[in-house]
Amino acid sequence: MAARREFDLLPEDSEFLDNYGLHWETISSNGQWVLLHEFLTPDGYNHSKVTVAIRLETGYPQSELDMAYFFPKLSRKDGKAIGRTESNQVIDGKDFQRWSRHRTAQNPWVAGEDHLGTHILLVEDWLEREFEK
Description:
There is one protein chain. The chain is of the alpha+beta class. It has one domain (about 10-130). It has helices spanning about 10-20, 115-130; strands at about 25-30, 30-40, 50-55, 70, 90, 95-100. A six-stranded antiparallel beta sheet has the order 1-2-3-4-6-5, with no helix packed on it. The relative contact order is 0.19.
């Protein structure tokens, strides 16, 4: 599958994604999005691999990245609800599930230190911590 590159990323973001090892794309679909395909989820979810979409907000990298969007939609195999995932966003013609997760005062966005890669690592953490509830 040929990767779409509808806009350029910062060099450190492209380098992170290339080293991360997943097929990725940049698309413009009512905003600028990075799509990570075949993203592995921890045991306990209904899908072992998903596509994760991350919106690059205006002003990034000075402005923080926020939330993550999953296709197909994730649910827990044990039937417990995943909070703050009720909203959806059409991205690239698909209905992605929005995970409304935000940085906190204890873990703020630090311009010049944080970037797409640190946000992806945070998304991994959100997926893991879901099962600590």
